[in-house]
């Protein structure tokens, strides 16, 4: 599909509007018709630690969501992520709802892992994800980022949407050779081997570890 520069600008502003509050991130998906950008939305509410997933998700994608929340819970103190009551136990008295719009379309596969983790990090930190960034990558329970397929089509989808930064797994670096030169020139690529690197690239100013005040003044 061909897009004029005016169409790209309009598309980007629509994308930017959807990332105007914490708990939203943009992923990249592959379909038989090509790549697509994919929004992930999260909200939290008082509850009993339940995770609700909506948007016609397959089992692999559901597992990615559980991996993401488990990794964030184990790293909550490191990044000073808290629930609404200030607890580092993100699911304490808290329910989470993750939604993948375009609910009539079935979605599956592991490549949304980095997007889900970023979306939840945004929700629990209260920080906005950059509105010009999209990402793809499988995650492990230890926060490693694993390679995925369809990189060329996914990057082209990000370019069509007017985005400027694309985060991909480090082990997919060789796939960038398939991207047309004019597209590569318009985009900034971040290759990540772990979720720490993904988060640093997805937020303005990075997503740094929070050091406890007492450690700053400690002496050996």
TrEMBL record:
Protein family per UniProt: Belongs to the peptidase S16 family.
Coiled-coil parts of chain: none
Name of this chain's protein: LONP2
Annotated Lon proteolytic domain residues: 19-205
BP term (GO), one: protein catabolic process
UniProt-annotated catalytic positions: 111, 154
Pfam families per record: Lon_C (PF05362)
GO molecular function (one): ATP-dependent peptidase activity
Swiss-Prot/TrEMBL keywords: ATP-binding, Hydrolase, Nucleotide-binding, Protease, Serine protease
Record carries keyword Nucleotide-binding: yes
Originating species: Cervus elaphus hippelaphus
């Amino acid at each position: 599909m061909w897009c004029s520069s005016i169409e790209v600008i309009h598309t980007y502003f629509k994308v930017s509007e959807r990332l105007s509050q914490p708990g939203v991130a943009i992923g990249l998906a592959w379909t038989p018709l090509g790549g697509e950008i994919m929004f992930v939305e999260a909200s939290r509410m008082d509850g009993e630690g339940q995770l609700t997933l909506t948007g016609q998700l397959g089992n692999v994608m559901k597992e990615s969501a559980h991996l993401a929340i488990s990794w964030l819970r184990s790293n909550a103190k490191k990044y000073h992520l808290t629930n609404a009551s200030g607890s580092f136990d993100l699911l304490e008295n808290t329910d989470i709802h993750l939604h993948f719009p375009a609910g009539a379309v079935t979605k599956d596969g592991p490549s949304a892992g980095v997007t889900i983790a970023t979306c939840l990090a945004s929700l629990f930190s209260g920080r906005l994800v950059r509105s010009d960034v999209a990402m793809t990558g499988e995650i492990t329970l230890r926060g490693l980022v694993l390679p995925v397929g369809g990189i060329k089509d996914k990057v082209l989808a990000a370019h069509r949407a007017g985005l400027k930064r694309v985060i991909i797994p480090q082990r997919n670096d060789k796939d960038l050779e398939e991207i047309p030169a004019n597209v590569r020139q318009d985009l900034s690529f971040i290759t990540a081997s772990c979720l720490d690197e993904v988060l640093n690239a997805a937020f303005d100013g990075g997503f740094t570890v929070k050091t406890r005040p007492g450690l700053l003044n400690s002496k050996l």
